[in-house]
Amino acid sequence: MSLSYQQMSAFKSSNSWANDSAFRFVRPNPTNSHNRNARWISPKAAVIPNFHLPMRSFEVKNRTSTDEIKSLRLITAIKTPYLPDGRFDLEAYDALVNMQIEDGADGVIVGGTTGEGQLMSWDEHIMLIGHTINCFGTSIKVIGNTGSNSTREAIHATEQGFAVGMHAALHINPYYGKTSLEGIVSHFKCVLPMGPTIIYNVPSRTGQDILPSVIQSLAENTTNLAGVKECVGHERIQNHTKNDITVWSGNDDECHDSRWDHGATGVISVASNLVPGLMRSLMFEGKNSTLNAKLLPLIKWLFCEPNPIGLNTALAQLGVVRPVFRLPYVPLPLAKRVEFVNLVKEIGRENFIGDKDVQVLDDDDFILVGRY
């Protein structure tokens, strides 16, 4: 039996449409096989309205509860390192994640802004999430950035992310081609049923604030909302916590006060890529204004240009990643590279990841990759 015949038989046996006239050929006049008036009537739409096969598994043993995600205090937005041709350097990546685990990070965001998910294909993105889960999923929580300004892409990427085992998803509101507040709610409602979710509010990048009323509306209608990565400031964080919404500060320079004075659960951090042990102390060991003040110059340096430019430069000078940049990111200028070396010496090299001496790299040491 031919494959096409099997497929048609299966289709006919499982659909009442098989007898529908729309699926029948209007046969030509048997007396004239060359009749040019023979017509083929187009079948009805092949896609059944509202029919969707989600890439989900209801296997319980690998599931992470929303409450587990809510309990995380130090989540590192992990850097993605590259080989000279622009492909992922998985050996360096694994070393970075291992150092996060050793120094007490609770979770990692894979393929976020810091990890340059915006420069990845979706194949790269899902592969890296799956790789992280496969290698480290029993030692640290893996939160995949599967958000998009396209609801269709966000749905598909989130299905794939949970299918490969990620513990939670990070979702941003639609950016650039912005939608209404009702549209934001509808967008998030499409992905929240899939698993634990952190919503990311960063108006400086998206151009649109996710108002507390939107978050409250979503929280009242799902158990999968783990919380919000909030970048608007202390007052907003306090607003959320009063409404029993879990919040992580998205600003390293504010996270100490957000944690101890305004009710934030913790931080989703860029700086912890460099000093995870100190950032853990900042989140776990009570108010420590002295340590916070010690770290603020480093944090200010990290964000002197849009993230992840500073972080990429710093990690290269620490010798833990190759000095390879996917464009449009380029390293900080020489004066800033010298400034970083001085900051490392002031804070103490022993507090930074890696074991090589920090050095000032020359312009010619960096590789900029536009096609990869």
Automatic annotation (TrEMBL):
InterPro entries named among the record's database cross-references: Aldolase_TIM, DapA, DapA-like, Schiff_base-form_aldolases_AS, Schiff_base-form_aldolases_CS
Pathway(s): Amino-acid biosynthesis; L-lysine biosynthesis via DAP pathway; (S)-tetrahydrodipicolinate from L-aspartate: step 3/4
Entry superkingdom: Eukaryota
PROSITE patterns: DHDPS_1, DHDPS_2
One GO-annotated biological process of the protein: diaminopimelate biosynthetic process
Molecular function in Gene Ontology: 4-hydroxy-tetrahydrodipicolinate synthase activity
Reactions catalysed: L-aspartate 4-semialdehyde + pyruvate = (2S,4S)-4-hydroxy-2,3,4,5-tetrahydrodipicolinate + H2O + H(+)
Keywords: Amino-acid biosynthesis, Diaminopimelate biosynthesis, Lyase, Lysine biosynthesis, Schiff base
Enzyme Commission numbers on file: 4.3.3.7
Protein family: Belongs to the DapA family.
Role played: Catalyzes the condensation of (S)-aspartate-beta-semialdehyde [(S)-ASA] and pyruvate to 4-hydroxy-tetrahydrodipicolinate (HTPA).
Protein's UniProt name: 4-hydroxy-tetrahydrodipicolinate synthase
Taxonomic lineage: Eukaryota, Viridiplantae, Streptophyta, Embryophyta, Tracheophyta
